[in-house]
Design brief:
5-stranded antiparallel sheet, globular, 7 strands, alpha+beta
Amino acid sequence: MPSEFSNFWGFDLKNNKLIPLKMGATDEQNLPVIFSTPDGGWAMGIYSPDSPQKSWPTVGYGAFSFLPQNVVKWNNVFRIGDPKGSIHFRSYVIVGTLKNVRVSMIKLHNILKSHNILK
């Protein structure tokens, strides 16, 4: 993504709060990630009902900045020790203003919860 998305957030779904993440190469952590422009006019977030994995409860989402290349990236990581057959991963990408992404992530989480899709 372009480096204009310079505000990195973890989203605490239990308290519906944005947690600032450090700019730069961050350690992987367990909160869904939202990147936004400084004014909040543009944002993109990633959420998976399958993250973090039970065997990896402290990780699952990464946020990285590569300033020499003028880009940033987020990811949603799944670790599978001995994959066999088809494996499916659910990840939802939400785009809008920072407020839109935050509200949509809450709504998505609540819908998945009401349908017993969350672990």
